[in-house]
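REQUEST FORM: STRUCTURE PREDICTION
Request ID: SP-0412
Submitted by: Lab K.M.
Chain count: 1
Length (residues): 79
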Amino acid sequence: MVREWYGPIGSLADAFKAKRHLWALCLGCGHTALFDPRDLIIKAGYLDLEKTRAKLRCARCGKRRPVLVPRDEPWSSMR
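STATUS: Completed
RESULT:
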């Protein structure tokens, strides 16, 4: 039996343990993107969500500091 995640998701490691993807929403243009925390951990390391947010830039308008929100549903399988 797999234990479900309980508690807040405050870092990339927490998102990975909870099996949650992260939605990034640009406050400048409204562009959204879905990120896999495993890919972000490989690129940026085990950062909290605030530090990760500071490193992201919108692919559409180029503005920084989007809002990061964990997805409600866990991913279905590990790759």
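NOTES: The chain is about 25% helix and 15% strand.
Reviewed by: T.R.
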